[in-house]
Design brief:
Shape: globular
Number of helices: 5
Structural class: mainly alpha
Distance between the termini: 24 Å
Number of strands: 0
Order of helices and strands: HHHHH
């Protein structure tokens, strides 16, 4: 499957190693790619509303699952607090831009893409990866997964894709 400029392809390099979390992250990447397509075609109110609803649905399901994992495996209290705060901030952002989605869908998709790109870079590649390492350690993995070359490649891949997206949006 070919991707439009600015779209991201899911790869194993993005995986945390927790199958359900990875499946949900892949779903978020699909929403991101839908937003890229909508923005490129001049987003309509209906597309913006659909994207927003998809993100609310994703967030409710995904954040509930991650909170369950954090309770089950008793992650570091400071990390858990920061992680859950990031989830609240994500939902607050969606609530904040809800009006913009309907009144100015083209501007909404640009703002949404910038927000989701940041979320992919910081939260999924950083915060969720740390959660997965802590869960691996709590499960008694012989050797907890530590950041390494594959994480560097993952971050590099995301940074490159986000840079291309930024260039594309700037040109438009």
């Amino acid at each position: 499957m070919s991707l439009a400029p600015g779209q991201l392809r899911w790869s194993a390099a993005l995986a945390t190693g927790i199958p359900l979390v990875d499946e949900q992250h892949e779903r978020l990447l699909g929403i991101f790619n839908r937003a890229v397509g909508a923005q490129g075609a001049g987003a309509t109110r209906e597309q913006a509303a659909s994207l927003l609803q998809s993100l609310f649905d994703y967030a409710r399901e995904h954040f509930r699952e991650e909170a369950r994992l954090m309770r089950r495996w008793r992650l570091d209290a400071e990390h858990r607090t920061q992680h859950l705060q990031a989830h609240r901030s994500f939902l607050a952002y969606l609530e904040q831009v809800e009006g913009l989605a309907l009144s100015h869908p083209a501007e909404f998709t640009v703002d949404l893409l910038a927000f989701l790109a940041q979320w992919l870079l910081h939260h999924i590649a950083g915060v969720d990866a740390r959660m997965a390492r802590e869960i691996g350690a709590a499960q008694g993995a012989a050797r907890p997964r530590e950041p390494g070359a594959s994480d560097d490649a993952q971050l590099e891949q995301l940074v490159e894709a986000v840079s291309q997206l930024t260039d594309t949006l700037g040109q438009r």
